[in-house]
Design brief:
Blueprint: H1 3-10, H2 13-20, E1 33-38, E2 45-53, E3 56-65, H3 68-80, H4 86-102, H5 124-149
Helix pairs in contact: 2-3, 3-5, 4-5
Length: 150
């Protein structure tokens, strides 16, 4: 099988459908925290705005300028992030990284839909873009918590 055929298979219908329908793409007015993350390899960016209340994500908005894989990851995050704790977001990030780098199983609920990105394991140059949404969300969560404690 050629590398081109493998790449075409990577961009499955499910990944393309997720990429085309990213939830929560409106930026927030006056968020508690905003974080922009960029993949230096491909230039993909994800900017996350969020508020935290009672230790959970209360409001969330994201601006996604990434490849279809990064967009698909952002779509899964956007669909499940409201009401999540820091630990749940960190577990999803760590699980996604382990799935991509170490062949571990996909993250568990509520982020189990990240399993659609399993075929990207073999494309290390795509991993950073895939990780952006969760990394930005976790960093924004921490900043929001710090601001609340200040």
């Amino acid at each position: 099988m050629s590398a081109e055929t493998d790449l075409i298979k990577l961009y499955s219908q499910r990944i393309l459908a997720l990429a085309a329908d990213i939830p929560l793409t409106d930026r927030l007015e006056a968020p508690a925290a905003t974080v922009k993350k960029r993949s230096p390899l491909c230039g993909s960016t994800v900017t996350v705005d969020l508020d935290v209340a009672d230790g959970r994500v209360a409001r969330f908005g994201q601006d996604v300028k990434a490849c279809a894989l990064g967009q698909a990851a952002a779509a899964v995050v956007g669909a499940h992030v409201i009401g999540r704790t820091r630990d749940e977001i960190a577990a999803a990030r760590d699980g996604l990284r382990a799935m991509l780098k170490d062949g571990a199983p996909p993250p568990g609920p509520p982020f189990q839909d990240l399993a659609v990105l399993e075929p990207a394991r073999d494309y290390k140059n795509r991993h950073a873009s895939i990780m952006l949404a969760l990394e930005a969300t976790l960093e924004a969560f921490d900043k929001a918590q710090e601001a609340a404690c200040a």
